[in-house]
Amino acid sequence: MMVDWNAVFDNFGIKKVTKTDKTKSAYLPNGKQRLAIEAAGILPADERPAPSFEVTVLFDPVTSIVSSSYYYSERSPDADRNPEPRMGHGIISSWLAQGDKVLIGNIGSQLFAAKLDFAPVSQVMASQEIIKCANREVIFDLAMAATGKPAKRSIERAEFVRNPYIVAAVLLRSDGQCEMPDCTRELFARDDDSPYLEVHHVVPLSEEGDDTFINAAALCPHCHREVHYGKNRYALRDRLRVHIDALEA
Ligand SMILES: [Zn+2]
Ligand SMILES: [Zn+2]
What we know:
The chain is an alpha+beta fold. It has helices at about 20-25, 30-40, 90-95, 125-135, 135-145, 165-175, 220-230, 235-249, and strands at about 10-15, 50-60, 65-70, 85-90, 100-105, 110-115, 200, 215-220.
């Protein structure tokens, strides 16, 4: 599946970097790229040196920002037509190489550039990369632009069938307290006034853990999320393991 760049950028164009672009250190953007640059609020400068601005580089493992300028080339005395604007500075002097297929696009006022050889193959991966690099304003704009109902996709998944007696026994063992050592968080109440705890598998079922009383622990929502997603999850898992083992000894 190819990335639909129309769904990503407000405007964009793609061009292969020519030998002239590179030898003159002046990249000649094509019409669609000029549209993107100008939609980001950058107009060709007459003054010298041309003012510098930043371009956000996407998908490049080494470079995340390049400087650029956008200026009218010197009009040659015999040419009567309008001079075509060029891009100077780091974007062409150091970042781009001859033969690179470069995409230049804008989302609102943020200007992006990407070498297509580095581009991801899926829309989701492209969007995730852009979210990492986009400025706050652009992210809010993208979110605000989304209206209505999200597309639905059906997912088939295998679920583990848990033993309800283990859940019940672990909740009884917990005596209404989170079983993570030293956790003192207050628990909110369920409709029946019992404290809200979640029963977690110390070694997850997805890692071949067992649905057994000694592999289960009652955790508050905070500890439960942290033991799954926190930076210290493996250390927490070990603490919980030691604690539950000691209870059962
Ligand atoms: Zn869990
Ligand atoms: Zn807790």
